[in-house]
Design a protein that fits this description.
alpha+beta, Rieske Iron-sulfur Protein, 4-stranded antiparallel sheet, 6 helices, 19 strands, about 20% helix, about 35% strand, binds FE2/S2 (inorganic) cluster, binds fe (ii) ion
Length: about 350
């Protein structure tokens, strides 16, 4: 990571590898994920698997030309086959497989249209230990009373994954940088339980301007659920005369020690009128894109402040910073995470 971020670039967490729709049965995709070259493939059972990409034989990339046999992936170069734990289980014409013939593997979880893999904290003592948690299904996803989630074009940002969740609980920037949406906002509660942090805030919105001209105050709540740094789900409930509910889910994934890819999807609770549903869905997508386009240049140029000068009303950010420490190895917690 650039010197702007003196904290480990690859903290513990579930980070998106791909959208489910992009990986068909027996599909194979090369990916750059958490500073590693990996191969993502879907076995014949439908399960997705993530392995380190380079074949232990002489180093071909399994994601470029590899083929799926059952739950195994076959290297395109000399046909060695790795099972989903990364162990080589077949070498053509050879009975004795070298014991060191294996590649690293990562726990995978596929939920609500996304394939996520688990990165252990750097220096984790037991590299085979089960993940501390698994992300749960998102409310409203695959639910006919909500619109079909619209997946947005990803952003690439030169920053650190810790920034995205922090943005979700940072109300001070909402009324300045995103002032086209929010006039005023305050925290109702912030709480965390292990790797999950929840924040609820009350908002006075500016986003439905014409209603304000009619004397209607548009208010609502925004509930943000953060599952480690890898998934930030925001659920807005807005009273604009009609009740509007939308959800935006963000998946920040560290690509290498400089770049983060941000994927997002937007969906909305259907109104009884489909034209209104369509218009509100389109508006939600527009606003979500605009918001990230506003945040991205800030993220790309800011630096990490280990001791931010938080002021009244920013207690949720302090909570977030303390909560964030758990995703780093012990040495890192001492070096870069002072509050
Ligand atoms: S490099 Fe993969 S089988 Fe030879
Ligand atoms: Fe923002």
């Amino acid at each position: 990571m650039t010197s702007r971020y003196p904290i480990a670039p690859f903290p513990e967490g579930w980070f998106q590898v791909a959208w489910s729709r992009d990986l068909g049965r027996r599909g194979v995709l090369p990916r750059r994920w958490c500073g590693r070259d990996v191969v993502l493939y879907r076995g014949e059972s439908g399960q997705a698997h993530v392995l380190d990409a380079y074949c232990p034989h002489v180093g071909a990339h399994l994601g470029h030309g590899g083929r799926v046999h059952g739950e195994r992936i076959m290297c395109p170069f000399h046909g060695w086959e790795m099972d989903c734990s990364g162990r080589c289980v077949h070498v053509p014409l050879v009975k004795k497989i070298p014991p060191r013939a294996r590649v690293g593997s990562y726990p995978v979880c596929e939920v609500s249209g996304a394939i996520l893999a688990y990165a252990r904290p750097e220096g984790a003592e037991d590299s085979d230990a089960a993940p501390r948690w698994t992300p749960q299904a998102l409310e409203g996803w695959d639910d006919p009373t909500w619109t079909k989630p619209q997946i947005l074009e990803p952003w690439r940002v030169r920053t650190h994954v810790q920034e995205f969740g922090e943005n979700g609980v940072d109300l001070g920037h909402a009324v300045v940088l995103h002032s086209h949406i929010t006039r005023a906002a305050e925290t109702v509660f912030v709480e965390s339980d292990g790797p999950v942090l929840r924040h609820r805030s009350r908002h006075h919105y500016r986003v439905f301007g014409p209603l304000e001209w009619l004397g209607k105050k548009v208010e609502g709540t925004l509930e943000t659920r953060i599952d480690g740094f890898g998934r930030v789900a925001a659920h807005a409930r807005v009273d604009a005369g009609i009740q509007i509910e939308n959800r935006v889910v963000f998946y920040p994934t560290p690509i290498d020690d400089e770049w983060v890819e941000l994927n997002a999807a937007v969906y909305l609770r259907k109104q009884s009128n489909w034209l209104l549903t369509r218009a509100l869905h389109a508006k939600s997508v527009r606003e979500a894109k605009k918001t990230i386009d506003q945040d991205a240049p800030i993220w790309s140029n800011k630096r990490y402040e280990a001791r931010p000068l938080l002021v009244a009303g920013e207690e949720a950010m302090g909570h977030y910073r303390r909560w964030a420490r758990q995703f780093y190895g012990a040495a890192e917690a001492v070096a870069g995470q002072a509050s």
